[in-house]
Amino acid sequence: MSTCEKSGEKNQLAIREKIEFHFHLEHWQVVMLFLLAYDACTVAVSYFAALWIRFDCAFQAIPLEYLNAYYGFIPFDMLFTLVIFWLLRLYKSIWRFASYDELLRVTIATGITLVFHILGITIFIRNMPISYFLFGIIIQFILTLGIRFAYRFIILLRGRRINEEEAYRKRVMIIGAGEAGKMILRDIKGSRILSEQVCCMIDDDSNKWGRYMEGVLIVGGSDCIMESVQRHGIQKIYVALPSVSMESQRKILNICKETGCELKNLPGLYQFMTGQVSVASMKEVEVEDLLGRAPIRVNVDEIFQYIKGKTVLITGGGGSIGSGLARQVAEHEPKKLIIFDVYENNAYAIQLELRKKYPDLDLAVLIGSVRDSRKIFQVFERYHPDIVYHAAAHKHVPLMEESPCEAIKNNAIGTYKTAYAAMANNCSKFVLISTDKAVNPTNIMGASKRLCEMIIQSFDAKIKEGKAEEIPQLFTHLLKDGDTRKYVHKQLGAAKTEFVAVRFGNVLDSNGSVIPLFKKQIQSGGPVTVTHPEIIRYFMTIPEAVSLVMQAGTYAHGGEIFVLDMGEPVKIDTLARNLIKLSGHKPDVDIQITYIGLRPGEKLYEEKLMAEEGLERTENDLIHIGHPVSFDVDGFLRELDRLMEMVYENKEEVREMVKEMVGTYQPVGENTPPIGADLLKRS
Question: For site-directed labelling of 400, which of 18, 198, 492, 677 has its Cα 20 to 30 A away?
Fold first, then answer.
């Protein structure tokens, strides 16, 4: 194409643009032209209708002289009416806001045109019937006013409908104006199901402040959350910060929970990386999201290699930790998974779940008690498990204070019998689930778990000395077969089982945890019962506890007590208040908190290690090893036999016996101040 042709095209384009620009009309100008045409037609229609009505609504009955008079004068009346309406600004009003002023001006304009019509047609053409003028002006007034106020009425109705829809739709704030936030925003805008409207966004990147994403204003950083919630009437908050550090995310969540808005959080970076970011992928913010530390990270590959192709036995497999272990073990391709539990309902529930999710899993679910040495031996002799996770235990502190013998029977003696059967049947690893309540215990449950730790340390010490056959086998029933001991002793000669304990704090949402109790109390309208305003606890989630247990198994060489670095402890009072806020209520306003006092055997704080235990790091920075505390192993094993006889006779002196065996056990009596009270007074 030549330069001249290009120049010609440019000139034509410029001319076209000028023409389009010149003839471009604003919306109000289009409305004005429509009203001009409408008013002209209104004048003609009104007076013709007046004649038609005057002569009994029969066109043929209208005299010709009246029709000629109408035809001769109506063009002048139309022109005059348009001029009067223009002068009275009836074409420049914003009719969506029409009010008394517009009504008055329409009335005046109509009156002037009536006078003009009467005088003009009478003087210059002929007299007309009085009803002609009367009906004509009434019809003109109604049509002129009707179109204008009908527009306002329609706008009001439409606005009311939109306002009702807007009121019904939840007002949403999105925190995070990155890729994840954009995905959530688009999902809400494109959804026909969600009744939500994104009103604003928050991001700590100051470069984004005052700018728009998909038409939504980014109002500021996290310090603007509270103000923006009030200003925009926010009802729901989506936190879309998959790549932000846990500390920063927790800070934002703690601000959001104070707003009283419904709060949802993107689970994590995995959903973002796999493109699974949508409103459906958002989860309710749970209290664990507000804990003061990062979640546990474990080496999945190590655990997979450790579990794959092994036969795994989980005692207490229907409980919170036991079922969590069963789920994760099932994912790692075990040769066989055996769930052993005394409570059939829990065992049946996890059986149904695993069979549905893992149809190829070789699963055995057995009902029985770890107290029954014959039953537990039968399980080991039949299945020969390589790894045992011993989660069977009584854990409820106040109940065990009322039934101390049951705590020792199930926890200590049950652990002894299970560990003995594992050792006698060439089990490779035995992992005991322990608790921070075993450290300087003040209740019988904690003391019984400390006995469990001492049992596995004793077994480990005897195996390493090559004297496993010296470990007595405890029986709570009469022996009819005298060869049983001989058979067991032969097996103990080659015993190489590695015993390990895993110690952690309270598990959120586990059976017996305060979280389910608090949730039920909140649902019923309160009050939420807290034992003491200053009581503190370490917390972790069920997946974290399970991961720790499984990782510990890979690190174990025998005799260790693995301890989780659970960060800072949490006040139970703070936990209760956070749960109330996450439920959309205000503590002490909507839901009351009442303090009921410490329960029997309860202390204000829990410890992770005894003073004489040292910490050794592992490959996982959040998992540490406590060095075993030395004690007289032989004396301890002899005393266990005597303790067993005492608890099966249900003697009341059991606490004194346990105190002799566990030197750190300090039972709290009714007149004894709770452990930790002196520290609180000094602070």
Answer: 677
**Tokens for 171?**
């007002």
Which tens digit of pLDDT belongs to each residue from 31-43? 778 888 888 898 8
Please identify, in words, the CATH class of the domain defined by 306-513+538-570+607-661. Answer: alpha beta
Beta strands at 623-626 and 615-617: parallel, antiparallel or unpaired: antiparallel
Lowest mean pLDDT among 56-60, 196-200, 461-465, 613-617: 613-617
Averaged pLDDT of the chain:
80
Contact 593, 424 (CB under 8 A): no
- Each residue's pLDDT tens digit, 4-55: 444 445 555 544 544 444 445 666 677 778 888 888 898 899 999 988 998 8
Q: How many CB atoms lie within 10 A of CB 475?
A: 14
Q: Residue 396: phi, psi to the nearest 5?
A: -80, 110
Bridge partners for 616 per DSSP:
625
Supply 420's token pair: 């003995």
Residue for token pair 């289009």? 30
Nearest to 318 by CA among 362, 367, 359, 356: 367
The full length of the chain comes to 683
* CATH match for 169-285 among 3.30.420.40, 3.40.50.10320, 3.60.15.10, 3.40.50.720: 3.40.50.720
CATH 3.40.50.720 domain locations along the chain = 169-285, 306-513+538-570+607-661
Q: Which residues contact 67 (CB under 8 A, 6 or more apart)?
A: 51
**311 C-beta neighbours (distance < 10 Å), count:** 19
Kindly indicate the confidence band of residue 276, based on its pLDDT and cuts at 50, 70 and 90.
very low
| Strand partners for 312 | 337, 387
To which residue do tokens 């073990």 refer?
329
Alpha-carbon torsion angle 580, 583, 589, 593, nearest 10: -30
**How does strand 593-595 pair with strand 528-530?**
parallel
